Amino acid sequence: MTMRIGIITRQWLLKTFIIITLLMAAIAAALSAALHLFYYNTVRSTLSSGYNSIVVRYFSASAGTSDEEFNRVARAYIESYALRDAVDVWVIDRHGKVVATSDGFRVPEDTQMPDYGQAIASDKRTATWTGRIDGGEKIMATTILLGAVRGETASALRFSTSLEKVDAQFRNDVLLLSLVSAIAVLLTLVPGTLYIEKLVRAVRKTTDAANEIAKGDYSARIDYAERDEIGALCTAVHDMADEISTADKMKNEFISTVSHELRTPLTAIRGWGETLRQVGADDPALTERGMDVILKETTRLGGMVEELLDFSRIQNDRLSLRIAQLDVVRELDEAVVTFRERAARESKQLLYAPSAAPAPMLGDADRITQVFVNVIDNALKYTDAGGTIRIEASAAERRIVIRITDNGRGISARDLPHVTEKFYKADQAVRGSGIGLAVANEIVQLHKGTLEIESERGVGTTVIIALPLLGEERSLENGQE
User: Fold this and answer.
1) Which of 127, 368, 466, 476 has its CA 20 to 30 A from that of 61?
2) Which of 162, 158, 159, 116 is nearest to 139 (CA)?
3) What does the pLDDT look like over 92-110, one tens digit per residue?
């Protein structure tokens, strides 16, 4: 089974390989240069070690004597030189002639000694030269002057040694450094590539799961157990799938509920229409009753359609307000009057003590009334026969607070945070689209107010609506229409 390397892995591998290779090459080059300098400095120090204060005194004793005496001292020095097996030593007299060598061989007079000439020309009286001699061997030679310079000659000591073994050792060290650098690159790339590929596989799984979710399979899950950023992403995808699944379920229930709610008045209208068509004008009482039902159901149907249109406007941020000065208490009075007959018909008490003091504010009167109607309608729907709905209004600190309390079924702690969300309906057994509170909450917020709900299952619900009164209001979100 071959491992498929993803684009991200290939890009990471290429970029990392280039960076690591350049870095290791730079390190290896720096180490090689330092090593080369170290080796050659060591050789240079070894060559120079043959010249010290003792040697100076040794040859100074023969200064001004005959050439034969200088030659004798030179041979004696070479015989006592401890490193003559590793270093070639030449003694040069004041005429520039090599008079003694550590290997005992005679040096031809035309032998090139660049370091000797450089030492004579230098104020430091010493010079080092690296190069190849006539036989092709690479050497390092250091010349140190002993006596005074006379024209182009002077007595001197010349130390030289072969660099062939040093260069061979240096090449071996460079090869070892290159091998270590290559191993370091591999040790960096291989684990990193495996880890990146692991992350890429997790991303592939996430992509596959997201595609499945996009196709409608909200049960798709990602097999990734690590607690890192990818794990957090997987958890977020799972949560998203659950939320989409819940929203999709709520949407389907909403469509089903709305379809049922629309079908009920349409069925009543159609049924009475067919009945009236058959009966004609022969039964005025039946005709009047049928027309009452048709008008009632038409009004109900229109209200539902308008509620759906409002919800659509909210979703598209197109819900506008007709701003004018209004009396909140008056709008509340009219809303309560609308439901008094219904409450009595359903054997429920609607308790409300009208306030004598007006509560002026800037807002859309129709929308404010719509909020009160939606909330009172909900209170009646979720309160059983014999129950009580209490409505209170009080003004304080430039705000009016309306409390609508019922002792109906209440809302569970699980459903309470979601009752103002779109499509959410806590009790599917009760008629209604489930968007009334969402619309009411949006209208209250557009008026810079708040809508809060307190409820306990089996005890009842209190809806608290707070609106700013005139003088405290701020600019409204949608402005005037």
Assistant:
1) 127
2) 162
3) 888 889 988 988 888 888 8
Do 99 and 76 touch, CB atoms closer than 8 A?
no
- Backbone angle region of 216, left / alpha / beta, with phi > 0 → left and psi within -120 to 50 → alpha: left
Say if pTM beats, i.e. exceeds, 0.70.
no
> CA 265 to CA 271: how far, in whole Å?
10
- For domain 79-162, is the CATH number 3.40.50.12780? no
DSSP string, 229-262: HHHHHHHHHHHHHHHHHHHHHHHHHHHHHHHHHH
Task: Please check whether residue 417 is in contact with residue 378, taking contact to mean a CB–CB distance below 8 angstroms.
Answer: no
First to last CA, the chain: 68
In this structure, what token pair is assigned to residue 281? 């004008």
The CATH code that applies to domain 229-315 is: 1.10.287.130
C-alpha separations of 412 from 72, 202, 272, 362 in Å? 119, 39, 40, 35
- Mapping DSSP to helix (H, G, I), strand (E, B) and coil, where does residue 186 land? helix
What is the residue whose two structure tokens read 């807002």?
A: 363
CB 371 within 8 A of CB 465: yes
Q: Which residues of the chain have pLDDT under 50?
A: 1-2, 428-430, 472-481
Would you state the pLDDT for residue 451? 93
Q: Please report the pLDDT score of residue 444 as a whole number.
A: 92
Instruction: Give dist(CA 241, CA 123) in Å, integer.
Output: 86
Q: Which residue has the tokens 């799961």?
A: 209
Which residues have CB under 8 Å from 323's CB, separation 6+? 362, 363, 364, 476, 479, 480, 481
Per-residue pLDDT tens for 125-146? Answer: 899 999 998 888 999 999 998 8
Question: Homologous superfamily of 324-468 in CATH?
Answer: Histidine kinase-like ATPase, C-terminal domain (3.30.565.10)
What is the C-alpha separation between 114 and 185, in angstroms, rounded? 45
Per-domain residue ranges of the chain:
1-48+165-217, 79-162, 229-315, 324-468
Beta bridge partners of 160: 88, 141
* Nearby residues of 450 by Cβ (< 8 Å), 6 or more positions away: 444, 464, 465, 466
226 sits in the region (left: phi over 0; alpha: psi -120 to 50; else beta) called beta
Strand, coil or helix: 334: helix
